[in-house]
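During data preparation, a discrete fold description was generated, as reproduced here:
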Amino acid sequence: MKLFLFSWLTFLLLPFLSALGQFQLAVFVHRSPSWHLASSPTAQRQPAQFGDFIYCEKNPQSWWPAQSVVDYQSGSVPADQVALISELPLAAQKVLFDSVFRAYQQLADTFRVQIEAPKQTTQTAMRLVVEKFNDEKFDPLLSEFADYFRKSQDMATLQQLFATLWADRGAQSEMPSVALAQCFANHPERVVTALRRLDTAAREAMIEIIAHGIDNQIYLDDNEKLDTDQNLRLKSKLEAIRN
């Protein structure tokens, strides 16, 4: 079985990943969470919305070191108010992925409609809303999707992700290609089945996203040696969908 190693994006993120250390993506599970910035220990605790994401370093203590997902401010959070995404039950992860993917699709659809609106201010305001949601919710959570799909093989949520990415076509983020390339490497037949359910335009767009991700991956074989043929094998399976 071939193992996914990393993409060129990893190199760009190395300083950030080194800074995070053992930090993992978590979600607030308390309806009135709070967290305290270590940089300003006298500051009052500020409430965060239910479902906000944050990077945490799990430990046996009652408070975990934390960093915000956008500006990476350091702080700490009560351990009983957050849950690591990877440790949530698969059913709970599905709810989380579906809700975020659907919400982002709706925002992207609204923005595409407003592109044709006569008021530039309306477009600008909506674009900022979409970008904020992408930075705070969609992209961070998408980094967890390949592991979820590897375990669940959840076709419905994969189809929802395709619909979301189609609504947001033209976006510049690299995270979708990384996530979908990992999904394809783990379960190519399942991804192919999902792709065949799309109409031609959406299918071609998703194929291009996956192909871009495959081109920027490095794979190891079971002996942890570089497998230079894996990219070719995966690209061949992907290209077969066009035939």
Q: What stands out?
A: Confidence is low (pLDDT under 50) at residues 1-20, 31-50. The radius of gyration is 19 Å. The beta strands are 3-7, 24-28, 34-37, 46-47, 53-56, 63-68, 74-78, 82-84, 217-220.
